[in-house]
Amino acid sequence: MPLKVAAMVGNASSLRLARTWVDLGGREADAGNVVVTGEGGYDSAFAVTDLAVASVGSAALALAGLVAATGGKSPAVTVDRRLASLWFSSSLAPQGWAVPPLWDALAGDYRTKDGWIRLHTNAAHHRRAAQSVLGPQETREAMAAAVAGRDATELESAVVAAGGCAAEMREAEAWQAHPAGRAVAGEPLAAVTAMPGPGAGAWAGTAARPLAGLRVLDLTRVLAGPVATRLLAALGADVLRIDPPWWEEPGVVPEMTVGKRCARLDLTRPEDRAAFETLLARADVMVHGYRGDALERIGLGAAVRAARAPHLVDVALDAYGWSGPWAHRRGFDSLVQMSSGIAAAGMRWKRADRPVPLPVQALDHAAGYALAAMALRGLTHRAEGGGAFTARLSLARTARLLMDWGPQEEPQTLPPIGEADLAPGIEQTFWGPARRLNHPFGVAGVALGWPRGAVPLGADPARWAN
């Protein structure tokens, strides 16, 4: 990248990092202490690499704030632009084995009679929902034929009503005029409630492992929540992921369960519900990514969680925001890109004849680092004598952040992963040996790392390590 262009890109990244950090409740002055290194980035209709730098940098700043609040001086922070970009794709390099495919055969974009729609069928029950509306199609060709005669808006509504996941491709202007889009635009990037003390006291963290001794209850699924809890595990937390007996996400588990223990509970069964409430009572942090009303519907709403764990740092993400008509709608990164206008803008940018999404699941990864930042800010609140802390974020509001920056200013390139990008040593996963990328940020004195390799879902009992 020419020197002048590199300087312009770097300045934009730093400015956007500062704005994102402020949107997450941080002090703008802190962002001036971040040194952004590295070159290159994703070529895209929108500034995906700047989003990576901003979200990774915000998590790093939140960590630096926690280190300072727990007895240290404010440490230096660095963010590597190239590595932040690469982590937004995958951090794992299997050695002699392959990660299972990420996408179901029927998942993807389909042309309707008046536009485009995306069907998300990775989960078996979401696939069945789409098939209940469109017939028992088993190939993309058959599904395309079934979709071709349908109205996009009508089909989206029908699949969602059947319990599935679908999104019509909308232009940004149409989304901004839609009641759901207007609701999202009125929400903050992170809605925070920080209660006064008395606090819950100190924990056994060290300067190198700030979250050692803390328990994190992880009720998240692909992809943002697991990004957040992966980082908390890298800082020393005891992360216990809970999934229902039937849930699988094989395409991302080797990437995302590193450092965690993974158990299964069916929260609709009384004995499993009791086991979960016992875990909750001892949790310091809970990160969850269900639809906004999901925990309420099974009797584990905010009031119940507060009663069971009065000092809980409770951080949540949903797809389409916490207000408006789509607050309880199922959704994933790729669907939000279709709804919000990102895919339509990409189609024009690329001069393509079909939707063009971002080059990576950038909304997921950015929201994941923002979730981690809010968990760390909640722990800082606790370390400073505060009480319970809640934060609510969404993929749709993260999309709004990216789109508000406007089109990407300059073409960029991101060379493929090389040996210099990979950390030394081998990670022993359940599936075989692997290498990990070097971490995308550094906070002076903090040792990022996982003592345990990735494991399958349900590999562990539902109990805390200590």
Put the structure in a nutshell.
The protein has 18 helices and 16 strands.
Structural description of this entry:
The chain is α/β, with parallel strands linked by helices and 466 residues long. It has 2 domains: 3-100 and 189-322 and 359-443, Rossmann fold, CATH 3.40.50; 108-184 and 334-350, no CATH class. It is built from 18 helices and 16 strands. The chain has helices spanning 3-23, 28-31, 48-69, 81-87, 124-134, 140-148, 152-161, 172-177, 179-185, 224-234, 253-256, 270-281, 294-297, 302-308, 333-340, 342-350, 362-383, 395-404, and strands at residues 34-37, 77-80, 92-94, 108-111, 116-119, 166-168, 191-194, 215-219, 238-243, 261-264, 285-288, 313-318, 389-394, 427-428, 433-436, 441-443. The strands form 4 sheets. The chain has a 7-stranded mixed sheet with strand order 7-13-12-11-8-9-10. The chain has a 3-stranded mixed sheet with strand order 1-2-16. Helix 3 (48-69) crosses helix 4. The longest helix has 22 residues, at 48-69. It is globular, with a radius of gyration of 21 Å. The protein starts with a helix and ends in a 23-residue tail after the last strand.
